[in-house]
Design brief:
single chain; mainly alpha; 3 domains; 20 helices; about 5% strand
């Protein structure tokens, strides 16, 4: 490596043009020009170096030294799976030294950009594309080893590689300011009011400031965000927005256009002209987050429903926070495939493989009300919403109240969208409030940062909260069953 660097420096000092094409110069002028170049180059400090070759280590430990079937983690032998796990851990042991080295390189090339050669470009690409997957893969392999063979020689459930302070730069230069990555585009229904847009933009920005400013957040995974502000009372405007949105995708993100309903090949166009992107069963769609920045998709799609602001501007506000909270959650796991995301985020948990809302939706529901209450400095909002989420039926019929349905139904982590979505959302919010009261908001936030490593939900929950989720849910159920209304409400913050 050193020889290559020296060679490149010599080339830059000698120049790359043939002297046959140069205009005649006096001897004295030539001497002065060359001396200035030498003086300039002599003032450039040496490029930072490191005592190990991370590419060589990676290729050896995760290539040539591995059993031929080591990566077949569901079927390979115990010996080979243990070797794979241990080698991943060995490679990641260089993470802190590598982080320091890459930081030094970033600083160096920021001052001397001409020194940034293909050699270093390749190194940064390797770190960003290959080395960055090591902690994620370790979490997967360690969990698989525990699942298949138990804790034979290592306590995998409590072994978590700390990646929060060892992330390596992926670009030059890097930035700790989310605004340098910010890319939010709003599509607006023709009949939507300015007030709707003002509330929307205010609470998008509020949530960004609350959640996106932590240095550990993967800012490159937060954007782009395409926001579609619908008018829930105007079906025709939703159809018009579908056309506008698809035209934009076709122009700016053709790969995403081709993989979505915007592509005519995938359309099931209704008689009214809708392709079902912002409409559902003859109605305007409600608020949701779909899509993630990935190889196949360009962006998060934030569909924002509208509310009657004459009496319910608060819903426009806290629903915006709710959906933006989902973007924060997803930003930590979008580097993994979809099935793994489900297992990391607690969606696929419990006694079957059906999706469960309690964890992701519980977080977004509780913190949307808490953040909105703080913004307006009125905690009666939080109290009223949480009270209704426990002591009303949260429905339009004569079902029992949420509390009774929960206590007489399955465990919270076994409640599906289909069986009783309201229990999943509302009791899920109470479960988050319960954990927050015990552990504090920072710990609740850290759970999602920890998920960047690829650690699965059960292990992450255990490591973060000190007990497994089954035990905690039992304790929570007993708390709900045996507490008075006042005792339940007392766990909610007032500031």
């Amino acid at each position: 490596m050193k020889k290559l660097i020296i060679f490149l420096l010599l080339l830059s000092m000698c120049g790359g043009n043939s002297t046959s094409n140069l205009q005649p110069e006096s001897e004295s002028d030539q001497i002065i020009e060359n001396s200035s170049i030498i003086e300039e180059d002599s003032n450039i400090p040496p490029i930072p170096t490191v005592s190990f070759d991370i590419v060589e280590i990676y290729e050896a430990k995760l290539g040539s030294e591995l059993c031929s079937d080591a990566t077949e983690i569901d079927t390979t032998s115990e010996e080979c799976l243990r070797q794979y796990r241990d080698n991943l851990e060995f490679v990641f042991s260089y993470a802190e030294d590598l982080r320091v080295y890459m930081d030094d390189l970033n600083d160096y090339f920021a001052n001397y950009p001409s020194a940034f050669t293909d050699e270093f470009r390749n190194l940064f690409a390797f770190v960003n594309e290959k080395f960055s997957t090591v902690p994620q893969n370790y979490g997967i392999v360690a969990s698989k080893y525990q699942q298949r063979f138990g804790n034979l020689d290592v306590n995998v459930t409590t072994t978590t590689l700390d990646t929060t302070n060892t992330t390596v730069p992926s670009t030059i230069p890097t930035s700790d300011n989310y605004l340098d990555y910010r890319d939010v585009k709003i599509f607006r229904a023709s009949t939507i009011s300015d007030q709707h847009i003002e509330i929307l933009t205010k609470y998008i920005q509020l949530t960004e400031q609350l959640l996106f400013t932590d240095v550990r957040v993967k800012r490159e995974n937060l954007y782009p965000i395409l926001v579609v502000q619908l008018d829930s009372e105007n079906y025709a405007s939703a159809i018009a927005l579908e056309e506008e949105y698809c035209q934009y995708l076709n122009l700016e993100y053709p790969a995403t256009f081709n993989s979505t309903r915007c592509n005519p090949e995938y359309q099931d166009k209704k008689a009214d002209g809708s392709i079902g992107l912002f409409t559902d069963g003859g109605r305007v769609s409600g608020s949701s987050i779909s899509g993630t920045p990935s190889d196949r998709e360009c962006c998060y799609l934030f569909i924002s429903g509208s509310f009657d602001l004459s009496w319910d501007s608060r819903s426009q506000a806290y629903v915006t926070i709710h959906e933006m909270y989902h973007i924060f959650q997803l930003s930590n796991v979008v580097d993994f495939d979809y099935d793994l995301q489900q297992k990391i985020t607690g969606k696929q948990i419990g006694s079957d493989n059906r999706d469960k809302p309690f964890w992701m939706e519980g977080y977004a529901t509780y913190f949307s009300h808490l953040y909105y209450s703080r913004d307006i400095n009125d905690f009666s909002h939080l109290e009223n919403e949480m009270y209704g989420g426990m002591f009303s039926c949260y429905c339009g019929d004569n079902q029992p109240i949420i509390k009774e349905r929960y206590l007489n139904g399955p465990e919270l982590y076994n409640v599906t969208w289909e069986s009783d979505w309201a229990v999943g959302y509302q009791v899920g919010a109470w479960f988050i409030a319960y954990l927050t009261n015990i552990h504090g908001e920072q710990t609740m936030y850290d759970f999602w940062i920890n998920s960047q490593s690829g650690i699965l939900f059960p292990e992450n929950f255990q490591n973060t909260f000190g007990k497994d989720y089954v035990t905690y849910e039992k304790e929570f159920r007993n708390f709900i069953m045996n507490s008075s209304e006042d005792e339940l409400m007392s766990i909610l913050p007032s500031s």
